[in-house]
């Protein structure tokens, strides 16, 4: 009779710093506390489809006694964020049984977790979820793994760009990730001293941006500025297109370049602009201390939920502690947008930052 549990762990969706710290915590706690067997599923559902498994042990994760996983970015299990997983749902569901899993811990964002939850419901899997995304838009948790490091990375870039902007009297436009939510742009923009922050949740007008830049120069004698724009930012009334002959709902050349061209077009004074697109730099790097802490506590809590039989749950960070919340409820409220009238938006406005045309 089988007495030892066999649990799997996978990382799905876009990578981010802190994933390896989750893996480390799951393996250490499951093996040391419960004497379970832990296997890693490489490349998420693709690995399940191909019935691939990597045996994970606490001492198999170190190098000559040195444990690198706390400080290693990315994921040693690999990840995927493309393809049509549900086309192979029956095969993936069968693979869970073929690998003799008693439970699966899935680390992902709301998109990945939605797919995995659907598979779990159809296949009667024992599933526990761990939220990760630099967008920080998973509902019912104040923090997702990777967010803090990404904010720090963008803030560091803004610090560097501020000095060169001041040296040359330029407006630096920094495009950051955030197609549907602006948490990353808002947090990093405030922390990095931005003058303008443009978010998907709050429509902006190019006239409002130009008024802010003019006031900085005319009233405060600031000849430079920092503009942070989320890639999904939207205008109040303009048609987004870098070519007037090709109108579209999104700019053909990237939102940062589009805004630079619109500033040049509508500003009443000459403005020298430069555009920096941070791109996948935001996903990389060594996880911050906070992301390591959150990842470690999430991994430990996920194993405990499996032990307690609390399944189809997600671990979450609320009021400074880790709690369990129903995964179905999380998915029903995700992705979680920035509140246009929330405390951080009001803080930005109080500091004189233009964040779009927020209604009172």
UniProtKB/TrEMBL annotation:
> What organism does this protein naturally occur in?
Allocoleopsis franciscana PCC 7113
Chain residues that bind Mg(2+): 110
Q: GO biological process: any one?
A: fructose 1,6-bisphosphate metabolic process
Q: Residue numbers for the site described as Important for substrate specificity? A: 111
Listed name of the protein: ATP-dependent 6-phosphofructokinase
Q: Output the PANTHER family linked to this UniProt entry.
A: ATP-DEPENDENT 6-PHOSPHOFRUCTOKINASE 3, PHOSPHOFRUCTOKINASE
Q: Which InterPro entries match?
A: ATP_PFK (IPR022953), ATP_PFK_prok-type (IPR012003), Phosphofructokinase_CS (IPR015912), Phosphofructokinase_dom (IPR000023), Phosphofructokinase_III (IPR012829), PKF_sf (IPR035966)
Which family is this protein grouped under? Belongs to the phosphofructokinase type A (PFKA) family. Mixed-substrate PFK group III subfamily.
Which EC numbers characterise this protein's activity in its record? 2.7.1.11
Keywords, comma-separated and alphabetical: ATP-binding, Cytoplasm, Glycolysis, Kinase, Magnesium, Metal-binding, Nucleotide-binding, Transferase
Is Acyltransferase among the key words of this record?
A: no
Q: Note the HAMAP family from the entry.
A: Phosphofructokinase_III
Protein residues bound to substrate: 133-135, 170, 177-179, 231, 274, 280-283
The Gene Ontology terms for molecular function here are:
6-phosphofructokinase activity; AMP binding; ATP binding; diphosphate-fructose-6-phosphate 1-phosphotransferase activity; fructose-6-phosphate binding; identical protein binding; metal ion binding; monosaccharide binding
Q: Which EC class does it fall in?
A: transferase
